[in-house]
Design brief:
Laa1/Sip1/HEATR5-like_HEAT, mainly alpha, two-stranded antiparallel ribbon, 4 strands, Exportin-T, globular, about 60% helix, 5 helices
Length: about 150
Amino acid sequence: PRWQVKAIAAKIASIALTAISNIGESGAAAPDFDLIAARAALTKECQDANASSANLGPAPRSYAALHLEQLIAAACSTSIATLNQAELPMLQNAGLRFLILLVKHFGDALDPDSLSAGGAKEAILAQFSSQITSTVKHALTVSDEEG
């Protein structure tokens, strides 16, 4: 069934995210986990490609931070998935594990496009807080009903 494929996909996404964090640059400004650093790295790659005479070079690299909205949406939708009003624990657990990894890796990242009242940048996950909160509430509700 499709839900089993989604569970495997969520597990693979978790493995990939962990691998990226293990082989990537360390520190707070690692481009895979910092949108500001990812945009700067991508801009530099594009400028370098434009400056070179051979425009047939490799395509610019993609960074996880550039796809955060899709990653959060995938993790949250997998975490609350049901089939005919029946919970799918295997799929939901895989989605929650993926969501936990996303929060762990992007928890300190700042959003370059938003400013808080004091002029400081907000955490990038702030824009997803209602989605993440809803997902966690669903998981806790399911846990209470089962336990």
